[in-house]
Amino acid sequence: MSHEVGTFLWAAPEVLKGGKLTVAADIYSFGMLLSELDTHQVPFDGLLTDFGDVMVPMAIVMKVMQGTLRVMPSKECPPPIASLLEACTQFEPSKRPTAAQVLASLTQVAATWGGSE
């Protein structure tokens, strides 16, 4: 998967199903970017099937569209970033935070975890 090109790995389930791009879809994509920054890998990199084979992109897309596959933060991910990542990548668009809520969360993270200059 590390050589995949395109944006489908970052696309919201509703967009993969042919839905319109919305702010909620952008928030989902932002959550996928947070996952990439957390793990240093593209989403679902090296994901294996039940048989131990690397999962093909179409299988990943189908599982994301069905809501049966989500990215998860690493154990090393700071808790407030992990919470934001999980909120942003909710399957249901209405359960994702607004852009203002994301900004507030990031502002709080910067104030708490940012250190001094």
From TrEMBL:
It comes from the Eukaryota. InterPro entries: Kinase-like_dom_sf (IPR011009), Prot_kinase_dom (IPR000719), Ser/Thr_Kinases-Pseudokinases (IPR051681). Residues 1-109 form the Protein kinase domain. GO terms for molecular function: ATP binding; protein serine/threonine kinase activity. Pfam families: Pkinase (PF00069). This is Aste57867_9441 protein. It comes from Aphanomyces stellatus. The gene is Aste57867_9441.
